[in-house]
Each structure stands twice: as structure tokens, then as C-alpha cells.
Amino acid sequence: MTKKRVAILISGRGSNMAALINAAASPDFPAEIVGVISNRPDAKGLAIAAAKGVSTSVIPSKGISREDHDAALDKALAGMKAEIVCLAGYLRLLTSGFVTKWSGRMINIHPALLPLFKGLDTHEQALKAGMRIHGCTVHFVTPEMDDGPIIAQAAVPVLASDDAEMLGARVLAAEHHIYPLGLALVAEGKARMEGGRTVFAEFSEETGAGRLVSAPAPRPKTPDIESLARFTP
User: Are 24 and 32 in contact, with CB atoms under 8 Å apart?
Assistant: First the structure.
């Protein structure tokens, strides 16, 4: 199997980055992580990636124009021979020119069920709206923020006792499950962006069709309260 070369962009702790690196360590995963780039030199994820044997670099965004930063970023990705770019908590808006160049080859994880709750503070937004279901979305990146075609989603229940931190922790666990799945679909060519939509290749249920939109984990043989509440408030 020829694995797709993947670069990950981070700005902080890199927990989703770590989930992708761990998934890619499996021999049958269709992608390899060839580098991690941060726009912040103090990003904690850099040390985590280095400890896992992944090459890291910093392209500072402070004190530089967006265009010059993205040009340097594109040059670094070319040096890695990256084929897919994964944003994993990359806290910087990319220029439309850069996004267009990587159209269909750049994906992101967002902590909400898009198109609901774009931008920041998604868990607070969900609680304020009285949602009983919340979750996360893997999507292709387009010039408009949090607006690209959806690749995969995971749903979690919103419990009556939740605050934003508690709900965020539950969503983060789902992110770690769904992001490797989304990357695998793109790397294998089972999901591609076409005409502003996500197009899925034909494949049988046995090969994973039922996992395109999933809960954060398969239902356990012995249901617990949370699994029963997953789709029932």
C-alpha cells in the first residue's frame, strides 16, 4: 500500500495531532505523518510530536503578513512532499490563495456539528442553545471559515449536568476517534471534494460505509447510561 504523505499544522497542545500520529503508526493506515508545523514556537504539541519521532518545525506568524507566512508554509509543505494537510488546532486564518491551492487536500476538525456553531466557544454556544446533541465534524477546508464540505461527524449527548468544560471533554474524545477516520477516507480516495460537495466512493457496508457518520465509539455489548442517552435526550 502506498501511503499518502500528511503534514499536520498546530498552534497548541496537539491532542488531535497525537491521535493522528498514533493512528498512522498502524501498518494498515493509509497515510503517514511526515511533519508537524506550528505557527507558535511554544506549542506543546511540538515536543509531543518530536517524542513520537515526527519531524517538527516552526513558521512564526507573529509580525509577518498572512501572505508571506502562507508562502513560507507552502514552501515547507513542498519540502516535505506533503500530499494532504491536516489542521489540528491551527489558530490562524489562512489566505484564500493558499486554501485554493490545497483545495480538496486540506482537512480540519471542528468541535461542533457543522453547519451549527461555527467559530470559537462552540460548547458554550451549544449549551446556550439548549442542544441535547453536540459533537464534532471533519471537513474539507475552504476559504470561508468552518464552511467546507463535511467528511465525517461524531455525536455525543449533552447531559443536564454539563458545563462547557465537561461537554468539551466528551467532544474531544469524539474528535480523537473521528479525525483519523476522516483522514483515512481522504487518503484512500473514498472521500473527495467535488463541486463544493463531498463525494464518497462506492463501497460496501462491510468496508465501512456505516462509519461515515458515527457515534464516538461502537455501542458496547453491555449498554451504559451514556450510550443509551447518546441519541435520546
Answer: yes
- In the block, cell 506550528 appears at 38
Q: What is the DSSP letter of 93?
A: P
**Chain centroid to CA 37: how far?**
15
H or E element at residue 163: none
**Which residue do the cell numbers 441519541 mark?**
231
CB atoms within 10 A of CB 219: 11
Q: Considering the entire predicted model, what is its pTM? A: 0.86
Residue keyed to cell 510530536: 49
Q: Sign of dihedral through CA atoms 148, 154, 159, 162?
A: negative
What does the pLDDT look like over 41-87, one tens digit per residue? 999 999 999 999 999 999 999 999 999 999 999 999 999 999 999 99
Find cell 442517552 and name the residue.
229
Catalytic-role residue among 110, 139, 176, 177: 110
Nearest to 195 by CA among 142, 153, 233, 159: 142
Quick check: is 139 catalytic? no
